[in-house]
Amino acid sequence: MTTLIAVAHGTRSPAGRWQIQELAAAVARRRPGLDVRLCYVDVQEPKVADVVPTVADAVVVPLLLSCGYHVRVDIADAVEGTGFPVAPPLGPDDVLLDSMIRDLPAADAVVLAAAGSSDPLWRADVAGVAARLPGGATVAYTSGDGPRVPEVVARLRRDGARTVAVAAYLLADGLFYRSLRDAGADAVTPPLCHNPAVTDLVLRRFDAARKTDAARQTDAGRLTFAGSPL
Fold it and tell me: Which domains does the chain have, with CATH numbers?
C-alpha cells in the first residue's frame, strides 16, 4: 500500500495546528484505507526526514503553496535515495484562487498577502496568483524582504482606496495570518484550508504523482527489456 506523506510547514498556533491536522484527517476520511502520515519541515514534530524511513512505499505531498526552499531542499533531502515521488505543492492552483475570490468582499483595492520568501520561484508564483485576482491585486508579504502588508494597505488608502480587502494566500492560521488582522484592511479572507475542496486537491496531487511515477517505472522497464539480449 502506498502511503501519503503530507508535509506541512508547522506552526506554534494551536488553531493552525488543529486546522492542518483536520486537513490530513479529512484526506484520510475521503479515501478510506489510505495511510496518511502528517509531518513537518519546521517548528513541529515529526519532521519529514523522520517519517520517510518508517514507510516502504510513499508519495510525498507538500501542504505548501509553492515550490520554494522547503520543497526543493528540505523535502528533497528527506526522500533522496528512496525513489519516493514528490507531488507538486498545493499552489498555485485554481482551487485556491477560486476560494479567495469567493471570500473576497467588494473593495476598491485588493492586497494579496503571502508569506515572505527570497526564493524567486515562490515570488513568481505569488505574482501570478495576484495577477489573476479580479482587477488584479497588489502583492505584499507578512515577513522577509519586500513590501509588508500594513505598508501596502496604507499606501493604497493614500492613493484613494476607501476600502481595502486582503486575500490571504496562507493555508492555515498562525503568526502570519494573525498579523493580517492588524494590517488596517477592511476585510481578510479566511485561511485556505477552510475550503473543503482543498481536501480533494491534496488527493489529486497524490494520485497524479503516483500515476506519473508508475508510468516512469513502466517506461524504464521497457527500456531495460529493449536493451537486453535475446
Answer: 3-90 (3.40.50.1400), 94-193 (3.40.50.1400)
